[in-house]
Amino acid sequence: MESLTALKTGEAGIVEKVTGGRSFVSRASAMGFTSNVELTMLQNFARGPLLVFLRDSQIALGRGEAEKIKVRRK
Amino acid sequence: MAVSEKTVPAAKTFTIALAGQPNTGKSTVFNRLTGSRQHVGNWPGKTVEQKTGVFDIAGKHYSLVDLPGTYSLTANSLEERISRSYILDERPDLVIAMVDASQLERSLYILAELVMLPAPVIMVLNMMDVAAEQERRIDVKELEQALGIKVVPMSAAKNQGFAELQAAIAQASMGELDYKPQKPGLKEEHTLLIKDLQQRISRLIPYAYPVDWAAMKLLEGDSELVETLRERMKKDEWAQLEAILGQYPDGALLVAESRFNWIQEITAQAVSSPERRRLPLRSRFDRAATHPLWGKLIALAIVLAAIMGSMLVGAPVAMGIMSGMTLLSGVLSKAMAGMPAWLAAAVVNGLVPGLSFALAMLAFVLAVFLVIGILEDVGYMARLGYITDRFMQRIGLQGKAFMPMFMSFCCNVSGIMGARVIDSWKQRLIVIALVPIIPCAAVWGVTGFISSIFFSTGASIIVAAMLVAVVLQLALSSFLLRRFVVTGESGGLIMELPPYHKPDWKNIIIFVWLRGKEFVKRAGSLIVLVTMLIWVLSYLPYGSMESSYLASFGRLLEPLGGLMGMDWRLIICLIAGFVSKEAALASMAVVFGLGEAASSLTAVLGTTAEQVSLGAYLATAISPATALAFYLPCCFPYPV
Ligand SMILES: Nc1nc2c(ncn2[C@@H]2O[C@H](COP(=O)(O)OP(=O)(O)OP(=O)(O)O)[C@@H](O)[C@H]2O)c(=O)[nH]1
Ligand SMILES: [Mg+2]
Fold first, then answer.
1. Per-residue pLDDT for B525 more than 90?
2. Of A15, A70, B31, B60, which has the fewest Cβ atoms less than 10 A away?
3. Which of B278, B237, B471 is nearest to A39 (CA)?
4. What chain A residue is nearest to B71 in terms of C-alpha separation?
């Protein structure tokens, strides 16, 4: 299990867990980050926010937020 | 009292609420249903915009409320609280749930919440045209059956589906629509837990809250509900409840999962390509627009082009209005020759310059709103937030703050309203505190206008230089705020980049029209009032400006203003600027005497060389223009 930040551009993964405070979990899950959902990293440069594709949507995440989302590589 | 208070209530208008996630087309549907019969205000006591409107179907009157777009109905943000308390407490007769067919799974999430609430729901399946492009086939009948609610497929931007929607609304208003919604439940292993929670809270939750919904919200850790229960429960009861909830730190995730499972069941049969597309069709432009380097260049180019573009559109119109008004005042002063001198003077020297400046300003304001309306509607604004995130982090803010900041360039009020996209309370506070630093369209109007007079072609450079100055000042203020006032960690970024859409001119025009109307109402009347007041003060008691009350007051302050190189006339304008930035310019017209002078402000300033004229003053440096932006805090960003 690793953080979402570990996925490189183009790599796919499956969400295992969303950690962090209740308010973050609630926001992230409403936007589609729940266990077992598949996602693809659209953009992950060494710095700056990430861009992820899941449930037909493009979601931008700060690196700090992405750290809280745990994934398994596909 | 003899008469019973329970008289028959007057037939209430059938009230409909539009709910849905952001960018599902709520405003598009709202605009097309109500046309120009809409009203923009604020939710009582909140800085969130409230749009209401009315429309008729077959002679029957309906009223429509556009709820803020939110991803869920948990009390994480102001918008979510507003949306759900509207549905629970105001009890609309019908809720229209907007769902995006091209992002079906995710946008159904809010429906999973809405069907738990007491108001009946019909679903609009919007963006069917986009879904068709994706070759996604959706069986509407099947979906209706699985959901137990009416589903209306639409392509709102293409005007498709409105007849069906209106028919469904009419049916619903006559009670002819079946409403037997399928409700999402938790996994079986949690049914006991939910039952237990329900029992514990059923007598304590607010009357309007359905107990099964409240139990789920509690498990999600809904802050509002937790607060209410903590207050209302006995100490030991609350301790027990807290212990139970403590066993489910993942409550929010469990509930969200159950909703997505419900969605999967519902869509399994109705959607013909249920397996998700692995990758979006990202256009070349979008790749560039989100690239760390190219994206920034594109953003910079677009922002500069937007600001200068609106100047280019606004300036000639404003100049035209000004010279038209000068002509008019010439004609008027001849026509009014027979009337009392004070009346003619009031009209020619007070009212006409005041009005003409208000109008000239309106040209700039509309131009800026037009540009912003287009960027927003097309979907570029979110990219701007994403691409500026790192830069904004550097001045202690997040990318989401860029949009409200950018909007503040058009109007501080809309910037403060736009701060709603920021989900961290602290960030929102900082942004709201910073916004008034940003010169709004009116100031850009003032500076654009003045600099186009004095620098003609160089005006754009002046405007660009001011932009840099503003950014530097923002960075400094943000640093100070975070250091000394709003301390603590700053919230992070999580936001959707919506798919691009062709600009919808109807939406944009309504957007510009409504803002323009607001400007006229608020600023226009103020400008005219202030100019009239200033004129009166400059006319009394002897009918000449040099010996007027205004002059003596201004001269009183002259030693102070002298430090900044201003004479008494500029001081007066500065004071007017405290009321509103536009008023500063308008009063300039009165004080420097637009009506009396031959052709234009330039000529006026040229002839008043015996004092430090504004022209000479401005020509020496850019700083005065900047000073104007910095020192004229506009009072209306704080209506609430
Ligand atoms: N292709 C297509 N585009 C649409 C349709 N309906 C709306 N749009 C576009 O989608 C974008 C978003 O629409 P809005 O009406 O602003 O969405 P909203 O739900 O009000 O969004 P928020 O106010 O941000 O919550 C606009 O660019 C619309 O022109 C549709 O049926 N088909
Ligand atoms: Mg809208």
1. no
2. B60
3. B278
4. A30
Q: Running DSSP on this structure, what letter comes out for residue B123?
A: E
Domain of residue A38, CATH code: 2.30.30.90
Q: Which residue has the higher pLDDT, B549 or B408?
A: B408
Answer yes or no: are the C-beta atoms of B358 and B388 closer than 8 Å.
no
Q: Which structural domain range is residue A53 located in?
A: 2-73
pLDDT in tens, A13-66: 999 999 988 888 888 999 999 999 999 999 898 888 899 999 888 999 988 899
Mapping DSSP onto H, E and C, the string for B578-607 reads HHCHHHHHHHHHHHCCCCCCCCCHHHHHHH
Answer yes or no: is pLDDT of B241 > 80.
Answer: yes
The reply to whether ipTM tops 0.85 is: yes
Is the C-beta atom of B22 inside 6 A of ligand 1?
A: yes
Enumerate domains of chain B plus CATH numbers: 14-173 (3.40.50.300), 188-258 (1.10.287.1770), 279-640 (no CATH)
**CB contact, 8 Å: A19 with chain B?**
no
For A34, the closest of B102, B253, B385 (CB atoms) is B253
Half-sphere exposure of B224 (CA within 13 A, CB side): 16
**Which residues on A lie below 8 Å from B282 (Cβ)?**
42, 58
Percentage of chain B lying above the pLDDT 90 cut: 21
Q: How many domains does chain A have?
A: 1
Q: Is A6 on the interface with B (CB under 8 A)?
A: no
CB–CB of B256 and A53 under 8 A? no
